Amino acid sequence: MAKVTGLDGIVAAETDIGHVDGENGHLIYRGYWAKELAVHYEYEEIAHLLWVGKLPDASEKQQFTARLASSRELPLTVRRLLDNIPREMPIMSVLQTAIALLSGEFSWPPTLEQAISLTAVVPTIIAYSYRSQLGLAPIEPDNQLSHTANYLYMLTGKQPEPAHIKALNAYLILGMEHGMNASTFAARVVLSTQSDMASAVSAAVGAMKGPLHGGAPTEVIAMLDAIGNKEHAEAWIRQALERGDRLMGFGHRIYKTRDPRAEALRHVTEALSSNDPWFDLAIHVEKTAIALLEEYKPGRRLYTNVEFFAASIMRAIALPSELFTPTFTAARVVGWSAHLLEQAQVNRIFRPQSVYTGPMPE
Ligand SMILES: CC(=O)SCCNC(=O)CCNC(=O)[C@H](O)C(C)(C)COP(=O)(O)OP(=O)(O)OC[C@H]1O[C@@H](n2cnc3c(N)ncnc32)[C@H](O)[C@@H]1OP(=O)(O)O
Ligand SMILES: O=C([O-])CC(=O)C(=O)O
């Protein structure tokens, strides 16, 4: 019998939120192409779409944006925690701990209000923790700025460039939702025990940080730095594949063609990075890697995933690599909480089976 691993092909839930069509390379959020939403709408509007089920009209958008902005401040308990946590703790671990702390104020069943307050506070926790690691004073949120602009502002203390806001907004929207990926599944499993939304999101953050999931873009930068220039790309990738290493930013359980988010992010990055030799190298490495993956892993259909160009876009807007996975988390918290609201509507505890392969008693 074939080894049972990874729940490959198993349907764990029905959802109205997002659809990942892996054969055709399509991603749909509640009936809309995600790649279109990313360039025509703002973070707040797509959060509304994913949580409430429809795009907001102008007055709904205004009210909803104000609601989200008014929840950005850190609760005192979280501020105290962040002031006392060791500085060298990775930001994802800080985030996981801070969200777990908030679970004391959350209870079953999950609500839209809870989704708003968690989503609003995640960028503040990231920026507070990032600045504290650098020995810098925190920047209070500016409620006149959009969710995306305020995140960049809290990181740097400077008014962000419009082109950076636009690019980050597109990335955050494309990162919000992706069906039953590992972190969303983890969140739904925790909530299915009638635990609270913050505990479920804290578990999702733990799943997100692994290098096979949301931790990959940092490794993409490391790979490109190690390759260094176009002339070394082929030899470097061959050696990696011969050692049995995985190329970060390539391969996907569902996409058997190019991830549509990679395509969309490549276009957004191109607009910011014309004449950037690093981006030129990234394009060359992508092409070389796809060809070599087919040579070393024939028939596995391994293509670029979102993380390859997530790394490029975050680098292009001058985010340091330790912020890559936290920034992805600031996007995905919307999808997690949308799934948790949905899970509560149809809840039944998740309890798959295992096949016992150990010895039996004498
Ligand atoms: C937001 C996201 O989470 S996007 C994904 C981000 N993660 C990465 O970029 C990490 C690199 N990619 C991977 O490790 C994988 O492709 C995953 C984790 C994304 C998907 O894994 P799975 O669907 O379980 O694929 P699985 O591990 O079964 O791989 C199938 C085959 O392709 C190979 N393969 C898969 N991805 C890669 C890769 N990136 N580099 C080299 N080989 C790979 C495997 O070694 C395996 O080969 P085999 O048949 O000889 O054993
Ligand atoms: O769907 C997956 O398995 C991983 C992924 O791309 C995501 O979570 O965005």
List the helices and strands and how they pair.
Layout (H helix, E strand, L loop, with lengths): L17 E4 L4 E4 L2 E2 H7 L2 H10 L5 H12 L6 H9 L6 H12 L9 H22 L13 H10 L5 H14 L6 H10 L5 H12 L7 H12 L2 H14 L16 H13 L4 H20 L9 H11 L7 H22 L17
Antiparallel strand pairs: 1-2, 2-3
Helix pairs in contact: 1-8, 2-16, 4-5, 5-6, 5-10, 6-7, 6-16, 8-13, 8-15, 8-16, 9-10, 9-16, 10-16, 11-15, 12-14, 13-15
User: Which structural class do the helices and strands define?
Assistant: mainly alpha
Tell me the CATH architecture of the largest domain.
Answer: Orthogonal Bundle
Distinct helical segment count: 16
Largest sheet: 3 strands, antiparallel
Number of strands: 3
Q: What is the terminal-to-terminal distance? A: 25 Å
Protein name: Citrate synthase
Pathway: Carbohydrate metabolism; tricarboxylic acid cycle
Keywords: Transferase
Family: Belongs to the citrate synthase family.
